[in-house]
Design the sequence.
C-alpha cells in the first residue's frame, strides 16, 4: 500500500483534539499527519505519537501537498470553503460540520449502521450530528427487526457539544457560584457568556443551535432529517426536543419508539446486546443504567431503562448515553477513515 497522508483540520478544537487522541490510540497505517487550524493557532505545538508537530494555518494551498484523507472539525463555513478544494485534489474529506450532511451526493455515515454508503463518496463523507449518531446505533437493529413507525427524541446534551466556548460558559458559571454571586438572574451574572443565551450552570436550555420558522431548533431538525437519511426511511415520522444541560461531556437521550410489529422484550434486549457498538447497562434492581460520566472516554453507545411504552400497541422507551466528542464526532470520523483504508 502507498504511503498515506492524513490532515486534521480544526486540530486545536474540542473535536480536533479528540480526533488526534483517537488517531494516536488506533495507530492506523498512515505515514504522515498534518495539523491545521486558523491563523490564530498557527505555530502552536501539538504532541502526537511522542513527536512534536507545528499547527499550520489552513489556506487554499494547504491541499496541494497530496493528502489522502482529511478530518474536518472547524465549523460549517470552513468546511464549505475548503472541503471542496481538498476533494478536488484527490483527498477524501470526512466532515464533522453540518455543511454537507443533507446533500444527496454526500454519504452520511455511522459505520455500524450504513458503512456500505462510504463507497458512494465523491470526495466528501459527512459525519452525522452527535446526538443523531448515538440514537441511530441502537435504532438500526430495532428498525430492521420490528420496523419503526414513529420516534420521539428528548435529549439532554453536554456543553462540550458546543465546543470550547460552551465548556467555558459552564466552568465560569461554577466559578461564579463558588464566588457567591447571584446565579439565577442572567443579567447579574458576573461573567460574560461566550456561547449560550443564558447561564448554563443551574439551568436546562431547550435551545440548541438557532430557531427555525417551524418553531423547532436546527439541532432538532438535524436529528429528524439525519435519522431519516441514515436509516434510509425518508418518510419516517419523528419529533425531537433537544436540551442543553449543565453536564461537561456525554449526551443522554430518552427515545420513545412505536413499532409496526410486536416484540418480545427479552428478545429485543438480545437484539440490542448483539449489535456492534452497543453496550446494555440495564439492571434496575441494582440501580444500573447508563450515565454520562461512565460513557465519557468510550466509543460505544450505552443503552438502558429499556421498557414497554404501555400507552400504545407496540411501543418502547429507552435511555441512551454516549461520549459526544468521541462516538458523536471524533471516533466516528476516524472509524470512517479506517473503513476507507480497509477498502483500498
Ligand atoms: N463538539 C461536538 O460535540 C461536535 C460534535 C459533532 C460535530 N461537531 C462539529 O465539529 C466542528 C468543530 O467543533 P468543536 O466543538 O471542536 O469547535 P471548537 O472547539 O470551537 O474548535 C474549532 C476549531 O476550528 C478551527 N477553526 C476555526 N476557524 C477556522 C478557519 N477559518 N480555518 C481553519 N480552522 C479554523 C479552530 O482553530 P483555532 O484554534 O485557530 O481557532 C479550532 O481548531 C463544528 O463544525 C461542530 O459543529 C462538534
Sequence:
Amino acid at each position: 500500500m502507498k504511503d498515506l497522508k492524513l490532515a486534521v483540520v480544526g486540530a486545536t478544537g474540542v473535536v480536533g483534539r479528540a480526533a488526534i487522541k483517537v488517531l494516536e490510540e488506533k495507530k492506523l497505517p498512515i505515514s504522515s499527519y498534518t495539523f491545521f487550524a486558523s491563523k490564530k493557532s498557527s505555530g502552536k505545538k501539538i504532541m502526537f505519537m511522542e513527536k512534536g508537530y507545528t499547527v499550520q494555518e489552513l489556506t487554499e494551498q494547504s491541499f496541494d501537498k497530496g493528502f489522502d484523507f482529511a478530518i474536518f472539525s472547524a465549523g460549517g463555513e470552513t468546511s464549505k470553503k475548503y472541503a471542496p478544494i481538498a476533494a478536488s485534489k484527490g483527498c477524501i474529506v470526512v466532515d464533522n460540520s453540518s455543511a454537507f450532511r443533507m446533500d444527496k451526493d454526500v454519504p452520511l455515515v455511522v459505520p455500524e449502521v450504513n458503512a456500505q454508503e462510504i463507497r458512494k463518496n465523491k470526495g466528501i463523507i459527512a459525519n452525522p450530528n452527535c446526538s443523531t449518531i448515538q440514537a441511530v446505533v441502537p435504532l438500526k437493529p430495532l428498525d430492521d427487526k420490528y420496523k419503526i413507525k414513529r420516534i420521539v427524541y428528548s435529549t439532554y446534551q453536554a456543553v462540550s457539544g458546543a465546543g470550547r466556548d460552551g465548556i467555558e460558559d459552564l466552568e465560569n458559571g461554577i466559578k461564579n457560584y463558588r464566588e457567591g454571586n447571584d446565579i439565577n438572574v442572567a443579567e447579574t451574572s458576573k461573567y460574560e457568556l461566550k456561547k449560550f443565551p443564558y447561564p448554563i450552570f443551574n439551568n436546562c436550555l431547550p435551545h440548541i443551535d438557532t430557531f427555525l420558522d417551524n418553531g423547532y431548533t436546527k439541532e432538532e431538525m438535524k436529528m429528524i432529517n439525519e435519522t431519516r437519511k441514515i436509516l434510509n426511511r425518508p418518510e419516517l415520522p419523528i419529533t425531537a426536543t433537544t436540551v442543553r444541560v449543565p453536564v461537561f461531556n456525554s449526551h443522554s437521550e430518552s427515545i420513545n419508539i412505536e413499532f409496526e410489529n410486536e416484540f418480545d422484550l427479552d428478545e429485543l434486549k438480545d437484539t440490542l446486546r448483539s449489535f456492534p457498538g452497543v453496550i446494555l447497562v440495564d439492571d434496575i434492581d441494582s440501580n444500573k443504567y447508563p450515565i454520562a460520566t461512565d460513557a465519557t472516554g468510550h466509543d460505544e453507545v450505552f443503552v438502558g431503562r429499556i421498557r414497554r411504552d404501555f400507552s400504545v400497541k407496540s411501543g418502547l422507551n429507552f435511555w441512551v448515553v454516549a461520549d459526544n466528542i468521541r462516538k458523536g464526532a471524533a471516533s466516528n470520523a476516524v472509524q470512517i477513515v479506517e473503513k476507507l483504508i480497509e477498502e483500498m
Notes: Residues 10-16, 36-38, 40-41, 58, 73-76, 78, 96-97, 130, 160-161, 163-164, 324-325, 328-329 surround NAP (CB under 6 Å). The domain at 5-127+329-342 is CATH 3.40.50.720 (Rossmann fold). The chain has a mean pLDDT of 96.
